[in-house]
Structures are given as structure tokens and as C-alpha cells.
Amino acid sequence: MINNGFVPSWATYASLLRAYGRARYGEDAMNVYKEMMKKGLELNVVLYNTLLAMCADMGYTDEAVQIFEELKKSETCKPDAWTFSSLITIYSCRCKVSEAENMLNEMLEEGFEPNIYVLTSILQCYGKANQTDDVVRTFDRLQDLGITSDDRFCGCLLNVMTQTPKEELGKLIGCIESANSKLGNLVKHLVEEENNNEVLRQEASLLFDVISKDWSLHLKSLSLGAALTALHIWMSDLSKALENGEELRSLLGINTGHGKHKYSDKGIASVFVSHLRELNSPFHEAPGKAGWFFTTKVAAKSWLESRTLPELVSS
């Protein structure tokens, strides 16, 4: 366009910025942002939030602070709830407790209530800092706001427990019991090192009975090793489901997250491209959904059955 003598308009730059931001092309998005600022082209809050969400996913802390300060100087728009959410996520992932708390307070001063995503980020931050009482306080705030704990929030509580001294685990067990009584009972037995395997089996069975089946594999936020391990366990579970005569969904997906793994130089998606190819799997990257790999039920069934054939022949 430029080579043909046309000057890009605000709409052209905005489209580029949205595309690069959503695809997590960090360097390209930042270059467009800087060019817009240099030319005096004012962003709207949607574009600012697109950039900040990208920064949160890619660990661009300094860039996010700069963008946030520019937004606050804007005469045409101001931060909204999603703006503060992105900044809190960035600080929480870096375990910057005071910065995350200050941003939460600023969010409250602007009249925005924290949602479950914000509170999950804050909870993770306190957990990394071993501030168990603040983890409990964050859980209580969730209850006070009338927000129902979801699976991700409970998962974060479990993750925090792995970093918590044994003498303080009881505080977190109480939170988990309140959020999900069946999960809480199971965790309590495990932490108290109950030797009664039958009791553990019963508690686990009660929990598994209420877990809905999801034929998608979600790997975002896992380390590369954990993600690869989860993939092979999931493949094994799918094979067992077929052996038991269960029907798979028409479309199966693997979500690795978009762009780079948080604060890591290597993205899970890039590794999975070659690994899935080595496995001769039918999963392929989704053009319109960064970090997602999809296949059909028919293709997955054929592939899984072909993988079990060598075992059947050898036996």
C-alpha cells in the first residue's frame, strides 16, 4: 500500500494492530503502536486493551506499564475493567504483590468490581509469595461478591497448596471444601495421609461422578514437560473410551495457548506442531484460533485404533 503511494489511515493501522495483537505477534504489534503514537493517531480503549491482553500473555511488563500510562493521558478514552484486569494479571504472574494490590485498589477507586479472573490472578500472586492468609482473604472476597468458584479457581487453590507449608494447609482446605465439597473431602484425606484406600476410592468416585466429560485438552499455563505428559495421558484416555464403546464428540481440540508460553522463550504450540507430526496425528492448527489444534471424531478414531494395532498384534 505504501509502495504504491497510499498513506495508511487510522482504520488501517487499527486493523493491523488488532490482527497482530490477537495473533500475539508482539514485536509487530508494538511497532504499529509506536508508529501510531508517533503520528499522533489516538487509540481507543479496545485497541489499548488488545495490546495489554497481548502483553499479559507474553510477559511484556515494561511495555504494558508504558501503554497503561499513555491510556491514562488520553483525552478520548479511559481505562475500563478489562484494562485493570490485564495489568493485574501481568503483575501477579511476576509475583509483584504490591504492584498487583495497587492496581486492584486503583480499579476499585474507578468504580470497577473485580471479577473471577482478577481474583484468580491475585490469588496466584499471593500463593507464589507464600501469603496464605491473603489467599484466604481473596477467597472470602470472592464469596462476598457472590461469585461462584469455577474449576480454574479451584485448580489455582490446589496449585497454591503445593507451595504452602504443611502447617498452613488447613486454611486452604477450608477454602476448597467451601468451593467444592467433594473435592475438599478428597484433598483433606490426601493431606491427612489417610491410609484407608477404600475411603479414598469412595471420595474420588463421588468427585469423578460430577465431573463433566470434555474431549478437549487444555494445556495453557502448563510447562512443556507437563503439557507433553498430559497429551499422552489424554490420548490413552481417549483410547480407553473407545474400547468401552463411548462416543467421542464430533470435534476434538487441543488448546496450547497462543504465542509464547508466559515468561518462557519457547511456545508450547510450536513444539506441538512437530510432536503431533511425529505421532502422525490428525490434529492440525486452526487458522482462525491461535494455539488450537483440531480434528474430527472420525479421523481421531481411525488414528487411535491404528496406534493400538501393533500392541494387539504383538500380544
UniProtKB/TrEMBL annotation:
GO terms for molecular function: mRNA binding; rRNA primary transcript binding. GO terms for biological process: positive regulation of translation. Keywords: Coiled coil, Repeat. This is Smr domain-containing protein. GO terms for cellular component: chloroplast stroma. PPR repeats lie at residues 9-43, 44-78, 80-114, 115-149. PANTHER family: OS03G0856100 PROTEIN (PTHR47447), PENTATRICOPEPTIDE REPEAT-CONTAINING PROTEIN ATP4 HOMOLOG, CHLOROPLASTIC (PTHR47447:SF12). It comes from the Eukaryota. Pfam families: PPR_long. Residues 217-301 form the Smr domain. It comes from Kingdonia uniflora. Residues 176-203 form a coiled coil. Belongs to the PPR family. P subfamily.
